[in-house]
Amino acid sequence: MIGPAKRGAIVRHRWRDALIAVLVGLAVSASYAHSADKAPAQTMPPTATPTGFDLEFGGQILSDYVYRGFSITDRGPTVQGSARAVFHGYFVGMTATGIDVPFRAPAVLDFHAGVRHPFGPILFDSRVNYYYFPDSFIPTTNIPGKFDYWEIQTRPLWTVNESLLLILHAGYTPNFVNLGASDTWLSGTAVVKGPLQPLPGWGAYLSAELGHQWMGTTDANVNLPDYFAWNVGSGLVYGPLSFDLRYYDSSMTKEECWIMTGDLGAAPGGASSPANPFGLRSNWCGAALIGKISVDTSLSKLGLLKPSR
Hints:
The chain is mostly beta strands. It has helices at residues 4-20, 254-261; strands spanning 53-62, 66-67, 70-71, 78-87, 90-98, 107-119, 122-132, 149-159, 164-173, 183-195, 202-215, 227-238, 241-250, 288-298.
């Protein structure tokens, strides 16, 4: 027979499994790679390996933050900042992003290290990310929780010509948000870009991404849903500044959305399942139109550091 203490621990563990997926460690750094997961091509990624030492940094303001199909800011605005030291293609950095999720962490800190290396027209960006969620609590309790985890990612960028860029993005973790479930992400992005003729010095782009998320089974035997996610949008670029407007959506049902996010504002009335017995429905995964303003630069671009060979 299970005692009260053990029963309470099981309940807390199942709540955590149902609510945690929202944090998906938003990798996404300010200059193409806030962990290689930034809403694709909202700013133009580097297309060559830098030489010598440089320091890249930037930030962005977003009306909502949709990560791989669902909001991690409770459909509200947020800010993000990052800094990254680069030396002959090797890099190490950190990105901080404000979040609003059920486990109450105010932000996620993405520590990452990796290498960019060209092979002909293709630039490979490969890295390891560690996502740290400070001051986290098990949802609906005052019990501290640990949801940190690591992920490996690779993102080949093929510069087809001056106007077309193709991006493949793959990520994998064996222990998604410390739940015991594996998480595999694979997506493809196409970017069409060029100068904006009426405005000298300005550039414009159109881009679209289609991805699929494969989720495993948690330590508490909860099957997290697999789903498709996509976005399409356009933007303007002027020097280090970019302005992006983008449409996001996914194939998740509202009931699956609750399983992935644990949205505390979800409403009952949907179809029940073992992972969602009350049929709770969340709006965090539906269609959304999101605007973003970002700045991405480096010491060398500002003329404060001359790249050395």
